[in-house]
Design goal:
mainly alpha, globular
């Protein structure tokens, strides 16, 4: 096991380096960069500069700072050297002068809270519905669930978010929920008022995030359980006199967990990057909106820090899935 983990960690490091170099190269090769602006002051902040020579001088200094005047490989190695020391640089367009690590840590809690609730809701609803549909496959309940889940899965997130906002947010037809932006004057609220505002702020975004994954996961669960529900070991369990619920959950569903675990490897990166549209629609200052700002303003240091964070979480999710395979099925041994 130790040898396997060491090999996987080394492979993950090589893979992460390849991801980061590819991301950096694509950023450099894409047209435009944050230095080509005549609205930069001498300290790198937004402002007005008199004369073209002043703008050229500032842009040249910023290009040298970001190593944009160097070859791609040289610039990447310079960035990597700083990143290995824990220095991911400063933002140049989103919030000029602030460290990108500080920006990420400032917005990370809101995104984690939003996505954790969405993932919890998805699994709590999807697994029982999927197992129940498999147990009554072909019945009226299964067909109704299949139709409703198909409709949910086909609805675009952008359309659903805008519809929920138009119906239930401030200024809409039924103005029950705030338009977003976080909780104002949180320090002045008692614990119950704060929890109420939390629900009002996050309920619609969580529903918007969860419905698509819930619909898809339910069908995957149903299909996985159906593969085993008529197997010999399930019939043997029934012949021993076990209840139908014990047969479903302790025998059929446990073997179907392999498929569920495979789908799980995308959860960790989704925790920080899976809510870009939802955060934008509901005006939530989280990692998704930060990623969108970094992309639209070509903030290279911030983009590279986000690529590093998301790539590391993706590789960690894959490794975690391998360990969960062994926990779900003791016959699996990780030796290569």
């Amino acid at each position: 096991m130790a040898g396997y983990l060491l090999k996987r960690l080394l492979l993950a490091l090589v893979t992460l380096l390849a991801i980061l170099f590819t991301s950096y190269a694509l950023l450099r090769l894409a047209p435009g960069d944050p230095t080509r602006s005549d609205m930069l002051t001498g300290d790198g902040r937004q402002g007005t500069i008199d004369g073209k020579s002043g703008a050229l001088r500032v842009n040249t200094a910023l290009r040298e700072k970001l190593a944009l005047d160097r070859p791609i490989l040289t610039g990447f190695l310079r960035w990597l050297k700083s990143a290995l020391r824990g220095d991911f640089g400063e933002s140049v367009t989103v919030d000029p002068g602030r460290g990108v690590t500080e920006l990420i840590l400032e917005r990370l809690p809101l995104t984690l809270k939003l996505n954790c609730w969405a993932i919890l809701l998805t699994y709590l609803l999807a697994i029982p519905i999927g197992v129940g549909s498999a147990a009554h496959a072909g019945g009226a309940g299964d067909r109704i669930a299949e139709f409703l889940l198909f409709v949910l899965y086909s609805l675009p997130v952008m359309w659903v978010g805008l519809l929920l906002q138009a119906l239930f947010c401030e200024g809409g037809r039924f103005p029950v929920f705030p338009i977003g932006g976080g909780i104002e004057d949180a320090d002045a609220l008692n614990i119950w008022q704060y929890q109420r505002e939390q629900i009002r702020t996050f309920l619609l975004p969580v529903l918007c995030l969860a419905y698509g994954g819930f619909a898809g996961l339910s069908r995957y669960t149903r299909g996985s359980v159906l593969q085993y529900i008529h197997s010999d070991f399930v019939r043997t369990a029934r012949a021993k006199g076990l209840s139908e619920s014990a047969v479903l959950w302790h025998h059929a569903f446990r073997n179907a967990l392999i498929t569920m675990i495979t789908l799980f490897n995308g959860i960790l990166p989704a925790l920080v990057g899976g809510s870009v549209l939802v955060e934008y629609i509901f005006n939530l200052p989280g990692m998704g909106s930060l990623s969108l700002l970094a992309l639209s303003s070509r903030d290279y240091p911030l983009q590279m820090a986000l690529f590093t964070f998301t790539g590391a979480l993706t590789l960690l999710g894959i490794l975690l899935c391998d360990l969960l395979y062994m926990a779900a099925d003791p016959r699996i041994r990780l030796t290569r």
